[in-house]
Amino acid sequence: MSAKLRNINEQVIVITGASSGIGLTTARMAADQGAKLVLAARNGDALDQLASELRRQGCQVATVAADVGNVADVERIGQTAFERYGRIDTWVNNAGVGTFGRLEEVSMEDHQRLFQTNFWGVVNGSLEAVRRMKQRGGGALINVGSEVSDAPVPLQGMYSASKHAVKAFTDSLRMELQKEDAPISVSLIKPAAIDTLFAVHAKNYMDKEAALPPPVYAPEIVAKAILHCASHPKREVFVGGASKFISASRARMPRLTDSFVRTTMFSQQKSKFDKMPGRPDALHAPDPTHTLRERQGMTERTVKETSAYTSLALNKKPLLTALLSGGALFAAWKLSQPGMARRRLGRA
Question: What are the start-end ranges of the H helices in 42-181?
Answer without folding.
Answer: 44-56, 71-85, 108-118, 120-135, 157-179
